[in-house]
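seq as requested:
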Amino acid sequence: MAKGATRDMTVGSPMKHILGFTLPLLFGFLFQQFYGIVDTIIVGRFLGVNALAGVGSTGSVNFMTIGFCCGVCSGFAIPVAQKFGAGDYEGMRKNVANCVWLSIIFSVLMTVIVVILCDEILIWTDTPSDIFQAAYDYILIIFIGIPTVYLYNMLSGILRSMGNSKVPLIFLLLSSMLNIILDLVCIITFQMGVAGAAIATVASQLISGVLCLIYIVKRYEILHISKEEWKPDLHYMKILCSMGVPMGLQYSITAIGSVIMQTALNGLGAMAVAATTAANKVSMFFGCPFDAMGTTMATYGGQNVGAKKIERIGQGLKACLTVGFIYWIISFIVMCIFGERLNALFVDSPDPEMMAQAQEFLLINGASFFLLALVNIVRYLIQGMGYSTFAILAGVFELVARTLAAIVLVPLFGFTGACFASPLAWVFADAFLIPAYFHVKKKLERIMLQEA
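struct tokens:
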């Protein structure tokens, strides 16, 4: 068996497992957002509003590409979790081996494509001319670092599939601290501009991935893959792709809506882009618990489906939604009280108009956070249950909502219309996901009944 820690979520209290698994994930996501915030603060304070807007204008494009990488890796981890829950460790190792082969293929292809198209992508998104060069310098390096994103997310996903959410957190904390240090060195000492921020991000991702690899090799005998198991297997690749590609596409389809929205926002000028960049960073920080809950439910669902314990699925969902509701109330109160101060961290001399827009964006999104909790928890649970295709459909609903916001709300209401883009997308996604969950659960119950 493994020397490293594992967590079997198929027995015991669902609430205990969810809290025990979510908290390390939460600290990881929070710290990841923290160093992202520090990164943005350094850019805004030392390089100016235009540099801040340049980095911010690439946010949706960044999410579309990097989100696809993370989604694919999360999907790859689901068959691993199912095999672990079923006690099929040979099948688990074969899945891991084919994860590696697929990650290499995907990372190389994606890197080549987006690097070649980098200039055109920024033109398509109507990036303002005064921030175009800063946006290009930043996103090109992020694109080049795509293989490092695959490395860390694939390996951390494998660890989490076996119930270990603590070790990826530790390595993420170490690399995040290094990222902050590299930010300061590259931007302040070596005067590398926004390119320095991107280099620091890629370097930290690489280090966290390498640390995960070393830990797995040394501590997880259960993952020591034999020469025979290393052989590429089309059967396993097909299963992995059936989980990973839909999850990746879900991120990208959702992000296409964000790109459309970003294009509309870019048309409102650099001030609106900078305000959204600052508020988005704060909003994403407060939204981290919902990401952690979603990732937890993917592992919880995968293990319990593998163990054929469908009755535990609903118990886990109720427990997680309870936690999400309580957190939503607390987080919104904090945003109301401290939101303006948090937004002001990102610029040296806050402009009153920019600060007012940033606070408006933050409060409108914060008031709708429970809708986001539903999206993340239910969508990831459905994916963990083995029906990741529904993630694509949910992403399509979000795409439609953001497109409507871009072509209807922004022209009618300006910046305020842009603030409602995400809440509208969450409403559309929830309207699809909630019925989809009950459909999937009933379908699995019928399958289990037939197999009994």
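Residues 14-447 form one domain.
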